[in-house]
User: What shape does this take?
Amino acid sequence: MPKTRKKSNDTLIPPHPVMIVDDEESILLSIDTTLQMAGMNNIITCGDPRRVMDILAERMIDVMLLDLNMPHVQGERLLDSINREFPGIPVIIVTGAVDVATAVRCIKAGAFDYVVKPVEEDRLVTAVNRAISFQELKRENLALKQHILSDTLEKPEAFQEIITNNKKMLLIFQYIESIARTSQPVLIRGETGVGKELIAATIHTLSGLKGNFVAVNAAGLDENVFSDTLFGHARGAFTGADQARRGLIEQAAGGTLFLDEIGDLSHTSQVKLLRLLQEGEYFPLGLDQVRKTDARIVAATNRNLSELQKTGKFRSDLNYRLRTHRIYIPPLRERLDDIPLLAEHFLEMAAQTLNKKKPTPPKELFTLLKTCSFPGNIRELQSMIFDAVSRHKSGVLSLDVFRSHIGPDNDKKLPTSQASGDEIPLLAFPGDRLPTIKEATDLLISEAVGRAGGNQSIASKMLGVTQQALSKRLKKQQQREK
Assistant: This one.
């Protein structure tokens, strides 16, 4: 019978077992111990190659380590059977130095990799991790393909805190479902206020991890505070350290550690984070004994890490390691169709918080809000609505509060189609000809009315004229066009 070694209270790493097949008990124990020390706790061993096909028929495994020279069934023959009946399993050949030519032949026959006895621990762990990552990637691609084809979510309830009907956001949700259960790091990008922490918490919810979701903002943390916050310290590690302290990485064991504003980390902190990501290892302050972690890392930033990398402010190796899975959350100005839904949600929330009756929004509110660029994104919209409800007395909600927030100097960015670097100048005329005053005025009026959704009251505010003056100019335009 195969032997299974795992700690019952731990998250299974990898999700499906690593299977070791060798007729020598000492080899089985040695490889098992090496993998356990590397943080893998889901391992089965088999000393009889005749049992392998029966085991594979009963349970799914992530990767197999297969000895070539065994009694009863040779490893090469067993590899052929596995490739034929279970082609999705990556098989790593374990062979003696004199059998390297045979191992190469096995690679050509479909083996994933090979390691030579006596086994080097680093080489073995690297090969197994590569095979596990390969399996994760296959599962992610399959899940993403299924999501895109079905155009639905498997667990829509996991996204109930995120208020949206936007198509871009639905595609992001489908991608999140496809990657949530992997152990690889995730990098979430987006402007301030788009809801990056909410997305990170949703990833944790869908991951199935039993540990806690622990969040920390890295902005403003120098290297000592960063190390103490993340990794903790031993008693007496520094002046004032009267007792040991558990770091956030320990509190996130078996769960998710969310690092916000990752682009603000110092170089020294970046090095420590890189080791944590690559090796799953860290040192609490005042201790020289390495500790292991199985926490999944999700990071977020509102900065362009590639640009920081070019200027030497962010390590390239850390950037590449963080971005195994990348999620970009579009700003609110690229999701204008979400504004009515979000505004209604925040009106309800503000009324409950302030113990007031939910006010009736004027019909022009949503159109007015769509003229704002919202540099603070959803967080800014929420603050704006809370302020308006707090000042509200009775009747229909006043637009004055919103107009004062938006203001005449609001940076109205163009929609996505024109804000991506292919800007179309508002006053573009052939041959570099300047427009006449009348032409420029007509263009400005048309642009304002278009942005205001045809609402003359809002368009007049944007242009800094009265509604009567705008109406008069529009009538003149219509008469000229007849």
Notes: DSSP finds 20 helices and 15 strands in the chain. Residues 181 and 207 are 4 Å apart (CA to CA). Residues 121-150 form the longest helix (30 residues).
